[in-house]
Structures are given as C-alpha cells and as structure tokens.
Amino acid sequence: MRRALICLLVLACGCSEDAPPPPRELVLETAVGAEGVSADVAFEIPEGTRSITIVVQGADDALYALGAFALGDQAELVHLPAGAPGPAMQMTYEQEQIGQLAGDLYQSIRLGTFTHVYPYRPDQNVIAGTGFLRVASNRSGPVTVRILMPEDDGANVLPLNLYVVSDTLADPNTPEFRSEVTRLFAQANVVVTFNGVERIPGTALERITDFSEPQEAPTSMSAMLPGLVADRMATGLDIFFVEGLPAGVGGLALGTPGPPIRGSYYFGVVVRGGFPAAELARITAHEAGHFLALQHVLNRGISGRTYPDPLDDTTPGADNLMEGGTLLTPHQAFALSRSALLITP
Ligand SMILES: [Zn+2]
Q1: Interatomic CA distance for residues 67 and 292, integer angstroms
Q2: pLDDT at residue 19, as a whole number
C-alpha cells in the first residue's frame, strides 16, 4: 500500500518514475507489551545492503532481544518458542549467564541496549524489500529501534581510536602493537588504521573494579568509559586502555556484537594496559572482534552446558583469536566483513 502511494505522489509531482532509494539509517519507536513482545515494526531494506544492524534502546534494567525478524522475503527467522519470552530471557542471562535466546536466530540478549548484526554466517543473505521485526523483553515499555543498513560497497577499513584512561599508563601505541593488530585483522581482509592516541587523565575510571557475566550492564564502570569521549567526531571503534580490570580479565568488549553508534554507553572495548605489545595487540583484536561480530568459539554456561558459536568452520581447542590464539577462519572473516563500522579507504 505504501509503495502504491509513493508512486502516485511521484506521478503527481511529475518527477522521475523511480522512487528514491529507502534510507540506510532508520530510527523507529515502538513499545513492548505485557506479553513481552512489541507489535510488528516494518522497515524498507535497500538493494545492495551490506548488513542490517538492529539496535534496540530501552530501560537500563530490562533485557532485550528480537522476538521476530524478517528480511524482504517476509520469512520470519527467529521462531520464538510459544509464550512470553521474558522468563526464558532472564533464565539464560541471569542464571545460565549466557544470554542466548532460544529460537533459530543467534542473538545475544542484552540489558538496556541490544544489538544484532545480520548476516553473521556466510550462508545468510540480505534480501531487499519490506522486512519486519518485533522486540522481545522481560519488561513492558517503550523502546527506540535504530536500524543501520550500510551499502555493500566493499568497505574493509576499520579505524581505531586509542584512549589511555590513566595518568601513568605507558603509551600502548607502539609500532609493534600497531603492526600486530594490523596483521591479526589482515587475516580477515580488514585493514586497520590508527587515528592516534589520546590520554584522558584524572578520571575515576582508571581502574575498573566491576565485571559481570554474560556482559556488562549499563550502570557498570566500563559502560561509563564511552561517555568520556561521546563528543568526539572520529569514525571507527574506540579502544579504552585502563590501568586495572578485575582479576583474570585482560579486556572486555562492551558488546558482542556492540552498537556501532557513537554516544551509546556500549560503544567501545576496554583493554588492560601493561601487557607486552604482542599480547596487548592480541587482546585488542579479540575484543574488537567481539564488538564487530564474533563470539567465543565455545562458551560454557553456569550449568556446565556448552554453547558453540554459530559458525561451521571454527573448532574448540584450535588456535583461534576468539579463544586464546591468533588465527581467524574464513567464516569469522565473513562475519567481520559485514560490520557497519567498516569504511571505504
Ligand atoms: Zn572474549
């Protein structure tokens, strides 16, 4: 119906017969009802779209995911089990500490702001046309849905903005660090560029003392780091080097995947400084890999159950950047290549 109306309007004003292409960024408002899902939210997917990134922004203490998602062929991809999704979302996030919603779409449930990037496997394709989605939550209330659909233009450059959140931490931006981060991403045909390093002294965030599973909360110390640089105009991904993280944590991504939206409290990754350059580079690449697209090859829930990533060519225990190693597989490279954070040279 809407298409017919647009055609009539175009004819009436004597313009070209071709309607303008739909916008590649949308901001839509909807609300989650008492049954735990929103109404259908329709959106136009332009031809030649690299990926669809859906960011749902809601209440800080509510869990969000997609209750339905369809591309231009209108085929629903989530297939949520019957009943309100809230209890199952809380169980996997809070008790199992995995945050993976049952259904056919691999998605990471998230507190406050949820992000999904499609496609995340090489056998998935973006189909242009009118798609739709529904937001699922354990709480009712309004949400804002941002949809980013960048052009499939071969963009493969990932700029990194390095921030040293410390008075004393050594500058991580050494040639050895840069060349190793560059080498790790080159495996996925991603060209990393460095926008330089900026020191941010005198904050109360030099030592991050809280950490939560499966991911950080909007009220965590880590999620306050992006606010330090929310006014910067830089493109690319923000990397925050801090003096301390909780024991055993070398770095953390503020999203897996994270929202590619500057100003979000989840925009960026955090790395503990002080490691030798090669290890600092490996941690940085691992966390940036999370932020763009990648899961651990295998996660283990509190129950002991294991949760593999959604890719077919990764192997638990093998040398891989998303375990303790450095290699990336072709399917991981594909997932990274879909990120809306990538720009053309
Ligand atoms: Zn990790």
Answers
A1: 22
A2: 77
* Residue 232, number of CB atoms within 10 A of its CB: 14
Ligand 1 centroid from CA 342, angstroms = 21
Residues of the chain with pLDDT under 50: 1-15
Q: Is 288 helix (H, G, I), strand (E, B) or coil?
A: helix
What is the whole-number distance in angstroms between the Cα of residue 290 and the centre of ligand 1? Answer: 7
Do residue 203 and residue 181 come from a single domain? yes
Average pLDDT, the chain: 94
Residue holding tokens 């209330």? 141
pTM of the predicted model as reported, rounded to 2 decimal places: 0.94
Alpha carbon of 158 to ligand 1 centroid (Å)? 19
- Whether residue 255 contacts residue 290, with contact meaning beta carbons closer than 8 Å, is answered with yes
Distance 232 CA to ligand 1 centre (A): 27
What's the gap in Å between 85 CA and the centre of ligand 1? 27
CB 163 within 8 A of CB 239: yes
CATH number of 41's domain: 2.60.120.380
The Å distance, Cα 50 to ligand 1 centre, comes to 25
Ligand 1: centre distance to CA 287 (Å) = 6
Residue 306 and residue 222 in one domain: yes
**343 within domain boundaries:** no
Cα of 250 to ligand 1 centre, how many Å?
Answer: 9
Copy the structure tokens of residue 308: 């593999």
* Domain identity same for 296 and 178: yes
